[in-house]
Amino acid sequence: MTTTCFGDVTSSPGVLVASWYPPGMSDSEGEPQETIFLTLLNAAQRYDLKVAPHIEPYRDRNPINFSEHLRYFITRHGDHPALYRMRRGDKDLPVYYVYDSYLIPAGAWKEMLSAKGNLSIRGTQYDGIFLGLLVEMQHRYDIKKAHFDGFYTYFATNGFTYGSSWKNWRSLGKYSRQNGLLFVPSVGPGYIDTQVRPWNVANIRHRRHGKYYEVAWRSALAAHARVVSITSFNEWHEGTQIEPAIPRVISTFTYLDYEPEGPNFYLNLTRWWVNEFSNKLEK
């Protein structure tokens, strides 16, 4: 999940959210990639961008080892000028998106994320802005109980989950404001993954020449969100990419393009909506 690409800065979101695993770990198909994160930070600095970690559900993740991995992360990256931070009180704290946070009980997270928890990182050099993943309606209560600082919705498919359903964003925005939480709705240009998941036809969301993307943005603005994430970039197999695209067919895959609008259509549309969003925040 990202909000920009180094070579395509015209879309102007300013922050990249990139997968992070502890040293020596990766997903089931990849190579250990902790070293890649430093490469991203260095590249982002050259383009005046920021990077935040998307904490993946690595093997046996729990608040005990996560707090240890958090210490490693801050020791290695905490002083990097490209690490994204947000203001809380009188401090600028790193922001962490915690994917599949609901796999760990709220009571266990509370030990790390509450000020009085036995593993508390609050008020220490390892403190941060921690965003849990909201999938089901119940998760909003779990996120509050766990003492997360807010939540994001991730999925680009309207109606796929409670959190990704645009019709629920107003109530989620209201709940977040009433409970001092940060609500980060996730928008996307569309969704189609049937070239790799042929059984998933029900979750196809056609782009409709940008209309799907625009409704997602309008829904986020109507919910009075202070931050919006874009689930995109390099997700060609799920059809959520917004980077430049031209017609391309190979033996194993057909790359979806944006014709007749042209290869930069979604970057330009993203730039327009980012400007709209920024202008609204300034009012």
TrEMBL record:
Subcellular location: Golgi apparatus membrane
GO function term, MF aspect, one: alpha-mannosidase activity
Pfam families, per the entry: Glyco_hydro_99
Gene Ontology CC, one term: Golgi membrane
Location, primary (coarse class): Golgi
Entry membrane topology: Single-pass type II membrane protein
Keywords from the named record: Golgi apparatus, Hydrolase, Membrane, Signal-anchor, Transmembrane, Transmembrane helix
Ribosomal protein among keywords: no
Record-given protein name: Glycoprotein endo-alpha-1,2-mannosidase
Gene3D superfamilies reported for this sequence: Glycosidases
Family statement: Belongs to the glycosyl hydrolase 99 family.
Transcription found in the keyword field: no
